[in-house]
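Forum: Protein Structure Q&A
Topic: Joint prediction for protein chains with partners

I've read a bunch of threads here and the consensus seems to be that you should model interacting components together rather than docking separate models afterwards. I'd like to see that in practice. Below is the full input, 686 residues plus whatever partners are listed. Could one of the regulars post the assembled result?
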Amino acid sequence: MDERKKRVLSAIINDYIANAEPVGSRTITKKYDLGVSPATIRNEMSDLEDEGYIEQPHTSAGRIPSAKGYRYYVDHLMRRERLSAAQLRQIREFMASGLSEMDHFMRACCNMISRMTNYTAIAAIPERSSGRIVNLQLLPVNERQVLTILLTSSGLVRYKLLDLPSLAESRELPLLEQRLQQALVGSELSAVSTERLHELIQELQLRERMQEQVIGLLEQTLAPEESRRVFTGGVMNMLSQPEFRDIDKLKGLFSLLDEDGRVKELLAKASPEDSVLTVTIGGEIPVEGVQDCSLVVANYFVDGERAGSIGVLGPTRMSYGRTVSLMEQIAAELSRTMSGKEK
Amino acid sequence: MDERKKRVLSAIINDYIANAEPVGSRTITKKYDLGVSPATIRNEMSDLEDEGYIEQPHTSAGRIPSAKGYRYYVDHLMRRERLSAAQLRQIREFMASGLSEMDHFMRACCNMISRMTNYTAIAAIPERSSGRIVNLQLLPVNERQVLTILLTSSGLVRYKLLDLPSLAESRELPLLEQRLQQALVGSELSAVSTERLHELIQELQLRERMQEQVIGLLEQTLAPEESRRVFTGGVMNMLSQPEFRDIDKLKGLFSLLDEDGRVKELLAKASPEDSVLTVTIGGEIPVEGVQDCSLVVANYFVDGERAGSIGVLGPTRMSYGRTVSLMEQIAAELSRTMSGKEK
DNA sequence: TGTTAGCACTCAGGGAAAGAGAGTGCTAAC
DNA sequence: GTTAGCACTCTCTTTCCCTGAGTGCTAACA
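Posted by a regular:
Agreed with the consensus. Here's the joint model:
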């Protein structure tokens, strides 16, 4: 693809991103100074269409980028847009504001991103986060219930209120707690499998009928809590996008965003384990409901291992340059902040 | 209003609720057997319109209920609809499934209601919930952070990860924890004001520079956590309502539902402190964005005091009979379940 | 006096027709 | 290889007309 074709493609995509309307040859000569006449542009456009980079909604309309066109743009033409000082400051302030609890932190992060981009932000924390168990407590709430609390070095707090099946056991709680602490505090979360728990219970030599209760208890506490490991922000921004004037499209998209499982699947499919940033365009994602969307996903890492994914979902006609810069910055800061946390 | 007028109004409202289309005189004679001709119905309708119970979108259309009409219907004509056995069972099962943590419980409750009604459910837990402090713990996470955990008799678990301004203090934590427990465990949450905390700190005779830190710590822990005291469910159901085919209306409504503060305001304005169930119709609520909606709010009580509000937001054309029955049932069960919890 | 049939009238919604405008593709000249 | 000119295509908008639903009014009826 020669230089001028690239400039034409760039112009078409940039204009379409800005105005959401098919771009004609005259528009290009007027707004983007390529030094040639509309007729020449038309020839180039005709070529670009033959090669599949752009398409025509109908004969008498301008051209719009195709998925292939966007792909080429993202891979070769796109300029990263420098973040404004104000934005940088906002991100830094946010990171410094303390990520006390993962929950609030991620929710707030999604909100910040959605406000900055005017798109929708989605995030997921992986199933079992890395980190060591820092503390494990069993707090009796009343005769029938116990609150188990798990603290990890990555700043994750997990608690679960569990029902005790029999009153008798509550008397043995302090002892149980002590033993569990001895056994588990300090170990890597990832090392605590169901098998390990079974062994542990054996070692503890508990009364038989209590064994499975305790295992259940711990498993539930350690179990990844599906529900709150997926976050979204700025879903409503989609309402302002002209491509979602159509209620049925909205429905499809929103029903997707409403289901944590499908959001997680989306993030997983859109970003390889070890990539920092992935841009997925339109139909490239094999997930129902996001055909007209693009997704910019960033992974952040702690100790070289992926600690989570966070992404921006917008119309295919999204402002890639801005979004990519922003997400690179955010991922970097997240990695830094979370690693700092570890120490 | 005579008997026949009531029947006509009922017919109009029931039909409009079912079909979302203006109701004509012929439709009424055909579908609702009133034993009179369309012409007679027309006369009645003309009267009803003069009195403001119904209105005409345009000359050649049927009639639709006005806010006043709905109000009369809800107050005098509406039949409560018996819940199906399946629904009752679902509710009971849900209540029995354990309200381990308020958060998940309320979220799940909203989801259940929205599934049952196909409308949107909103809920709020009041600022400072009733109940006694059952346990208060300060768990050191690392040198710089402490996790404060507060357990209340109403089953509420609140935790907050707090930064310690200086390392020195962390050594004094166990002592502090012990003293705070002695002083606070057992007291009513509502009795713990900022003033009380100040007194308490005085009594504890802490080193001066630690005093305000501890107060801050406790205040933050006790402080109502705005963010997660408001819940919504089934927001997307609104997309299926014909009255929200219009994107701009949707935007107004969704932006309201997106802001916890405004949702809380809505619930508060829509239900008097001591009422069990309140139906608010259309413009009756002085809140931007819900002009085309009605709201059925139920309060539930623990120890005679309001423990929270939960409501259904739907189009003015909502199925009041069904919704009211459902919410009465839910509120009753909530009151029962939460009171049971106390013991 | 209340009810009904008949009829003229009104108005939204849908479809067809016409015109405007945007944009292209092709041809021929530069 | 580039450009001007021009015919052509197709959408979008506006206008017009027609249809159908539903009303309100009047006069007759019980």
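The CA atoms of residues 138 and 148 of chain B lie 5 Å apart.
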